[in-house]
Design brief:
- A five-stranded mixed β-sheet has the order 2-4-3-6-7. The protein has a two-stranded antiparallel sheet with strand order 1-5.
- Helices cover 52% and strands 6% of the residues.
- The N and C termini lie far apart (63 Å).
- The chain contains 20 helices and seven strands.
- It is of the alpha/beta class.
- The chain is globular.
- The model is unreliable at 1-36, 130-150 and 294-309 (pLDDT under 50).
- It folds into four domains: 2-64; 67-132 and 310-445, no CATH class; 153-292, Arc Repressor Mutant, subunit A (Orthogonal Bundle); 449-501, Orthogonal Bundle (Arc Repressor Mutant, subunit A), CATH 1.10.10.60.
- The protein has helices at residues 2-26, 29-64, 68-81, 153-161, 167-177, 190-197, 201-212, 224-236, 245-251, 253-257, 261-268, 272-285, 343-350, 354-391, 393-398, 408-415, 419-426, 449-460, 468-477, 484-493; strands spanning 85-88, 121-126, 314-318, 327-333, 338-341, 430-432, 438-440.
Length: 505
Amino acid sequence: MMLTILSLSVAIRKFYLIKLVWHITCNNTGRSIYFISEVDEMFQSQVQKQHQATAHLAQTMTLLSLSAFELRQQIDSELSSNPALEIVEERRCPNCNRVLPPEGMCPLCSRPTNLDSMEPVVYVSPIDDFFPKRDYVDQDYPDEPISPVTEDLSTFVLRQIATELNKNQQIIAIHLLTNLDDDGFLTVSIPEVARYFHLPISAIEEVQRIIQLAEPIGVGSIDPRQAMKVQLEVLSESTVVPEYAFEIINEYLDLLSRRQYGEIAKNIGISAQRVEKISEFISENLNPFPGRSHWGSVRNPSTPETTVYHQPDVIISFMNDNPKSQLVVEIIMPIGGTLQVSSLYKKAIKQSEGESRDAMREDLDKASLFVKCLQQRNHTMQRLMQRLVVIQKNYLTKGEKYLEPITRATLAGELGVHESTISRAVSGKSVQLPNKRIVPMSSLFDRSLSARTILREIISSEVKPLSDTEIQIKLDERGIQVARRTVAKYRAMEGILPAHLRQST
């Protein structure tokens, strides 16, 4: 982009200079030289402004693409290299620069435009409002800091357990972790690994058990049943687990997935209502696919201090925790206090001279540009989330099957920005939903999610296994038109077997 702008500037300037050469031949020399000088200065100024605009755009786009964790690293880098930047401890609104109270949102910028409406309240908040400093990753950086957002699952688990293992166990753990599928399950059997290392099965199972107890709980299991049993064991250490929960998962998971509560109740000898309540507990606290995990730790499933796979970039909640009130969207600014250009540095420039003054002026310009770009990034994120939350309100408040089909291109058109701007704003970021679940921001654009949710409902209520064609017809009856092969794809994504492999009850 910068090369294009410069080329255009040079071409325009050449055109004017050619005209002025002709002017020289027709008029007196002094007057023409004056015009040339005047036009030259005008275009020097124009090119300089274009440089500034290009630099502003480029840096804003770079900051926009960063997650909260990565943004904190970038801010730290700027602070360490540029003395003209500083963080002041007082809380100021990133939008209007108003001094804020010790906690809470800006009383001006967080005010809805229509007080009688249920439009979401969107604002930027410092990281300290949500996560204590001792818990945030910037306090004690490791020698090679790696963002938990971009770190792959195998590395994430290995970092947790490495100190618990001896050297031989570490080798086994690495082998197991490199054989995980996208759901967090082993793609090799324990006996197979035992034969590979010429060790007893118990030695491999010991390492597997250590892996399973790392976050996300249940990772390294052989299937959803084993993963959920591990999660229940851990959960039982701090929470009362309903009686029969272990038995239902161990013996009747297939029936449970199809919500055959009556059949389970008959086999166990309890009421169907009790089975349904146990099912609700399992759904709320266990994750059958730990590799997909963006949920809180099962060690603390209901507490506000829930440990999560990674910290979110945006938090969506209900005003005053009241589901009947409007949604509040908080975009996390990964620093406490306010980033600003140093006033002392501005004063010091006035007392400097020569090359020193030029160098200080350059630092000041860079600092000012960085602060402005950071403000622009926050403003863009606010506009994006404001519109996205309005579009996906039913999904946020009612569940997955209400997700509206929206593309990045469509949203870009509504906001009057380029599609790449939306892509940068969404990429690599995560959102905490009102139900406390943390999901990738990109999932708000997943056009298949509502269809897959309804597909699960159809299969869970089937009397006899339905073929993909029959499921396609039922989806069509509910206003979802997809091809049969797409049904097969969605079914596979949900981990559901074909009709001929699903048990009839």
